[in-house]
């Protein structure tokens, strides 16, 4: 019985040319020559009885048949890679690089305890953690996954909710001794509030409360505002400069030891979601898939 797929090398040549945009760039990536790749694509077109590419001196384009063939063969090769890595992961330790981006709040206060058991189980995985409040472009910037805050737009990304983080309104004891303790929401207008400038809008982020069973958004204003790193509002509050709203997981220890005091607890209870997101059509390594599964389960 003859080999049914002996031409797969020609398919790989076609995929490489389309991925890199030219025969020359693909040849450099594959350590071969443009003429070798051109002959491979020619053999593939002859086998299929279809022209796949439109070649000019300036650019390479796809015919309708080429576009469909490119989509289908990409999916087929992704399946082959996934099957290979699945088999390898069952017989050998996970390895390779995984890139993940997270906001400063989650990156400092939640992610370490989630990553610790994963890294202990998989010591050969090289993890690259990017901590930023900027929403990275997963595909363009080469990230396997990212953690995002808030309600996610319909971006086409797959999302797994990690938690609903509860909010707290806090200030330092010496600030309250100097400025007094607010008793109702209207009192906040008389205090030094520490707003965070939202990166996407350039406006102060709302503070969120529950009043008489209804969700209420309140816009803080102040002579001092924090941008880029929302943890700066907590640092300012801890130094007695003013009042901030942040997540319970950030200030829990500070509340317990008295460095901060919770304010207006009768209006607390609001939460904001953190989710793990990744591109649905991007091929994920076995290590990346294992990290996605670990982060989505209690205990890592």
Category from helices, strands and their pairing: alpha/beta
What is the CATH topology of the largest domain?
D-Maltodextrin-Binding Protein, domain 2
**Beta-strand content:** 15-25%
The N- and C-terminal alpha carbons lie at a distance of 48 Å
Q: Which outline best applies?
A: elongated
Helix run count: 10
Domain count = 3
Helix content: 25-40%
Topology pattern, helix = H, strand = E: HHHEEHEHHEEEHEEEEHEHEEH
Computed CA radius of gyration, to the nearest angstrom:
27 Å
Strand tally = 13
Please state the average pLDDT score: 87
Q: Unreliable stretches, pLDDT < 50, 5 or more residues?
A: none
**CATH architecture group name of the largest domain:** 3-Layer(aba) Sandwich
Per CATH, the class of the largest domain reads: Alpha Beta
Biggest sheet: strands, sense, closure? Answer: 7 strands, mixed
Write out key terms for the chains shown.
10 helices; single chain; 3 domains; Arc Repressor Mutant, subunit A; D-Maltodextrin-Binding Protein, domain 2; 300 residues; alpha/beta
Describe the structure.
The protein is α/β, with parallel strands linked by helices and 300 residues long. The strands form four sheets. Strands 3, 4, 5, 6, 11, 12 and 13 form a seven-stranded mixed β-sheet that branches. A two-stranded antiparallel ribbon has the order 1-2. It has ten helices and 13 strands. It has helices spanning 8-20, 23-30, 34-48, 64-91, 104-109, 111-121, 173-179, 231-238, 248-256, 286-295; strands spanning 53-55, 60-62, 96-102, 125-131, 145-149, 158-171, 196-197, 207-211, 214-218, 226-227, 244-247, 261-262, 271-278. It has three domains: 8-91, Arc Repressor Mutant, subunit A (Orthogonal Bundle); 96-163 and 274-295, D-Maltodextrin-Binding Protein, domain 2, CATH 3.40.190.10; 165-271, D-Maltodextrin-Binding Protein, domain 2 (3-Layer(aba) Sandwich), CATH 3.40.190.
């Amino acid at each position: 019985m003859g080999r049914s797929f002996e031409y797969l090398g020609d398919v790989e040549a076609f995929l490489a040319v389309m991925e890199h945009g030219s025969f020359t760039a693909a040849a450099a990536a594959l350590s071969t020559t443009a003429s070798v790749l051109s002959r491979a694509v020619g053999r593939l077109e002859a086998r299929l009885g279809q022209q796949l590419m439109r070649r000019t001196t300036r650019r390479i384009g796809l015919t309708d048949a080429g576009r469909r063939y490119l989509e289908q063969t990409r999916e087929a090769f992704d399946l082959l890679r996934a099957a290979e890595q699945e088999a390898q992961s069952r017989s050998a330790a996970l390895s390779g690089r995984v890139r993940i981006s997270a906001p400063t709040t989650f990156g400092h206060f939640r992610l370490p305890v989630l990553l610790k058991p994963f890294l202990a189980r998989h010591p050969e995985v090289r993890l690259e953690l990017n901590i930023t409040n900027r929403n990275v472009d997963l595909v363009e910037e080469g990230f396997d996954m990212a953690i995002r805050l808030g309600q996610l737009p319909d971006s086409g990304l797959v999302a797994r909710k990690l938690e609903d983080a509860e909010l707290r309104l806090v200030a330092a004891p010496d600030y309250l001794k100097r400025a007094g303790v607010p008793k109702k929401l209207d009192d906040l207008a008389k205090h030094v509030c520490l707003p965070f400038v939202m990166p996407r809008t350039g406006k102060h982020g709302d503070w969120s409360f529950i009043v008489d069973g209804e969700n209420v958004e309140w816009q803080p204003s102040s002579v001092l505002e924090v941008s880029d790193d929302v943890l700066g509002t907590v640092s300012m509050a801890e130094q007695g400069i003013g009042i901030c709203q942040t997540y319970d997981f950030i200030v829990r220890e500070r509340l317990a030891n008295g460095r901060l005091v919770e304010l207006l607890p009768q209006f607390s209870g609001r939460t904001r979601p953190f989710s793990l997101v990744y591109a649905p059509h991007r091929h994920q390594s076995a290590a990346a898939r294992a990290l996605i599964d670990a982060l989505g389960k209690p205990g890592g």
